[in-house]
Design brief:
The structure is a single chain. This protein is mainly α and 290 residues long. The chain has a single domain, classed as Substrate Binding Domain Of Dnak, Chain:A, Domain 2 (Up-down Bundle). 88% of the residues lie in helices and 0% in strands. It is built from seven helices and no strands. α4 runs antiparallel to α5. It is rod-shaped, with a radius of gyration of 49 Å.
Amino acid sequence: MTSSKYLIARVALAFGISRRTRRLSEAAAETHLLREAELILGRRVWKSVEEVEQLGIEYWNLRRLTTKRAELLEIMKSAEGELEAAHEQRAEVLSAKSSKQQDLEDERGSLLEELEQLARKRDGVVARAREVRRLYDGLKTKLEVLSQESSQEAPDLSKSRTRMNELRLQFEELKKERDAIAAQIRQKDEEMDGLETKITAERSIQREEASESFQVIGDANRRISSTKAELGVIETKMQQLYAEIGRHVSLHFRADPHCQAAVREHKPLVEVMVALRKSIVLNQKLADFT
């Protein structure tokens, strides 16, 4: 609010036109803007107020806090670097396989192929044995029927018995072959169990290596959280000090040559702050008159 607007508002009051709520609202908004301006000005000029005796405590506290903040930012940067490196290492460990583990898995793949071949071979032997058994049972049934139909020895009976003996021998050979293949399968299964144990051990080693990265990640995260909390406290204190410096130099820049020198490059902002203070006072006066 300007002086001319103030006079107009006083005249309006004389005629009973009151806008107390509006005046208080404007004063509150302008006060908020003034506080923001004091903070901005203080942040910009604080390094130039060392010679202002009244701001000695604010200036030297800011010097101390600035150094502390720089130290914390370095700690934060270091912790974030460790965190990023640990994440990369963990991802690499979890996605990569050791050469030994790869060799074991390749060996397991070859062993699985052998087991599949042996299983197919065994199934073939079993199928042939089943066929031989079916032929044998057919001849046996034939002999039983012929024996019941005739009391005399028929030529076919002798021939059938010979064939049955051949089938019996063939069946025994197939049975031995099946048992031999089954023994090979058992041996391969034992080898597979051994390989699985070795692969599990290698994976356990891999997880242990990854757990080291998890430990580093946890420590880095805790350090980052703690540092952020400290930085937050420092930033709050620094903003309070900036505001105090901005308020002082904007109030005394005309009387104090050191304050005047500090705000020389920020006169437009200081002039806005002067106008805001004047407007706040006028709005409050108008509110008090109603």
